[in-house]
Amino acid sequence: MADLQPHVVMLPFPVQGHVKPMLMLAEVLCHAGFRISFVNTDHIHDIILGNIDKSSFLSQFPGFCFLSIPDGLSPEHPRDISSIIELFTSINSTGKIMFRDLIISLLRQEDLDDKETWQAPCCIIADGIMSLAIDVGVELEIPVITFRTYSATCTWVYFHLQKLIEQREIPVLEGNEDIDGLVTCIPELEKVLRRRDLPSICKCEIDHPTLKFFLEQTSKMKKASGLILNTFEDLEAPIIRQLHSIYSKVYTIGPLQALLKSQLAGSPPIAAPATGNLRQEDRTCIAWLDRQPAKSVIYVSFGSVVVMSRDQILEFWHGLINSGKPFLWVIRPDLVFGDGPNGLPEEIMCPTNERGYVVSWAPQVEVLAHCAVGGFLTHSGWNSTLESITVGLPMICWPLIVDQKVNSRCVSDIWRVGLDMKDSCDRSTVEKMVRVLMENQDEEIAKSTTKFANLAQKSVMEGGSSFCNISKLIEDIRSIQS
Ligand code: UDX
After folding, report:
1. In whole angstroms, what is the distance from residue 305 CA to residue 197 CA?
2. Are 382 and 407 in contact (CB under 8 A)?
3. What mean pLDDT do residues 282-290 have?
4. pLDDT at 47
5. What proportion of the chain, given as a percentage, has pLDDT over 70?
6. Predicted local confidence at residue 277, as pLDDT
7. What are the b/e assignments for 314-338, b being 16+ CB within 10 Å?
8. Which site from 346, 404, 431, 481 is most exposed, i.e. has the minimal number of CB atoms within 10 Å?
9. Distance separating alpha carbons of residues 352 and 382, to the nearest angstrom
10. How far apart are CA 144 and CA 133, in angstroms?
11. From the CA of 192, how far away is ligand 1's center (Å)?
12. How confident is the model over 213-222, as a mean pLDDT?
């Protein structure tokens, strides 16, 4: 009989910034010989499978199986930031029932293609805000490991939401004159985190459904048998130590992009890796970058969910033009509320502009590593932040929502790998920040970016902290199996 390998069910939260790291972890585990049932919502499932060469990917990873469940929303319902609370709610009701049924059928081995080599799942790895998996895991007696796709620091802040309410730090009010005052009730962050830097959820009134949702998620997350984070020891050591007060097992395995690369080194190249990209990349920007001088271009991207006004876009545009630096800018069709990019002046959208190049979606990881790119103007999503740190690229942060304001504070005041431009984007500020960054006016930033890039690479190499932690995770899952 063929050797039986551990079978793990993986459940991401269905948006770009959460699916991508989960998929990278799945590929690492699959490479280690695990069987993976990767469960997307139907909506994300169709997009992902449309974006990869499924047959060559699956032939590379024969232990990989994509499954899907409904998210409970009608097909035409928007699944963007404006309706995120509906998505949370419906997944945790309808999605939960479907996920439970799916796990039951996998436990009975009904949905397994090849019963010779696949066996019932031994554990679930679920996104930290998919607590439905914890409920199902408790009921069906199957261990759940939670994967919070934010930084350790932001994860730690979310664990203090209740304390922040008790200390009346929530709601953070716009125009509050104490907005620059320090928040002193979160250990390790007493001297650095200001009210201004708290996650956007902290602006909610205490009875707001979104705040209640996150309070419930973080409380259920604590019942998981371990915590996985896409970060590395040398970046967030003091906070990781604090998280050990909640979990006996904390697996920091980032940067996942680099870990995946190092784990697959020496294996035959994957014909069609699943990048987790939910949009089509415009690769023409690489040819444009190839024509630019080394370290001359500032790359501008606000991730996959942030939306901004036409006026804000114009301020960025003038700031970039006035800085005199060439730029590569990702303007998604849904980035601008109102008219969308159609309402923007032709000069902004014109892709052949000599001073800049605009695409609707870039091959970001490749762009960040391109020798022509010298800086990154970012919304401070965690994936973007970590991808930038990994290649030693300094950042200008313009955070808006969820975890981004915490990340940007860490970038500017803890790790010193960039500048924080939060809460303002007038053209003169943009121009000034771009000049400071691109002309290397801040020596400390140059030193720190190199230092952390080296530490990030070291962490995923043999003997490094993330390398050891992924081995530990693999070993722990194997021990559940046996
Ligand atoms: C969301 C939240 O906004 C973010 O704050 C949270 O940390 C994760 O979930 P998103 O806005 O998409 O994520 O930002 P980010 O985490 O940076 O992830 C974006 C991903 O898309 C990155 O991996 C990036 O490489 C990729 N990307 C982005 C592209 O491949 N091309 C692009 O043009 C833009």
Report:
1. 19
2. yes
3. 95
4. 82
5. 93
6. 74
7. ebbbebbbebebbbbbbbbebbbee
8. 346
9. 31
10. 7
11. 25
12. 94
Q: Which atom of ligand 1 is nearest to the CA of 150?
A: 7
pLDDT at residue 157 tops 70? yes
Sheet holding 418-420, edge to edge: 356-359, 327-330, 297-301, 373-378, 395-397, 418-420
CA distances from 435 to 297, 326, 440 (A): 11, 11, 8
Residue among 110, 140, 121 at smallest CA distance from 4: 121
Q: CB 139: neighbour CB atoms within 10 A?
A: 11
Between CA 399 and CA 307 the distance in angstroms is 11
pTM of the predicted model as reported, rounded to 2 decimal places: 0.95
The SS3 call for residue 161 is helix
For residue 183, how far is the Cα from the chain centroid?
A: 25
Q: Is the CB of 408 under 6 A from ligand 1?
A: no
Residue 482, pLDDT above cutoff 90: no
Cα dist from 227 to 4, 6, 119, 251, 335, whole Å: 26, 19, 24, 6, 33
Is 365 touching ligand 1 by the criterion CB < 6 Å?
A: yes
Q: What is the DSSP string of 315-370?
A: HHHHHHHHHT--EEEE--TTSBSSSGGGGS-HHHH-TT-SSEEEESS--HHHHHH-
pLDDT tens per residue, range 15-46: 889 999 999 999 999 999 999 999 999 988 88
pLDDT above 90: percentage of residues in the chain: 72
Residue type, 233: E
Residue 3 confidence (pLDDT): 62
**135 has catalytic annotation:** no
Integer Cα distance of 52 and 226 in angstroms: 31
Q: What is the pLDDT of residues 64-93, one digit of tens each?
A: 889 999 988 888 888 777 788 888 888 888
Pairwise CA distance, residues 97 & 119, whole Å? 22
Q: Tell whether ligand 1 has an atom less than 6 A from the beta carbon of residue 406.
A: no
In this structure, which amino acid lies at residue 69? I
pLDDT tens profile 345-399: 777 776 455 789 999 999 999 999 999 999 999 999 999 999 999 999 999 999 9
- The Cα 6–Cα 294 span in angstroms is 46
Q: Is 75 buried (19+), middle (13-18) or exposed (0-12) by CB count in 10 A?
A: exposed
- What residues does 308 pair with on adjacent strands? 336
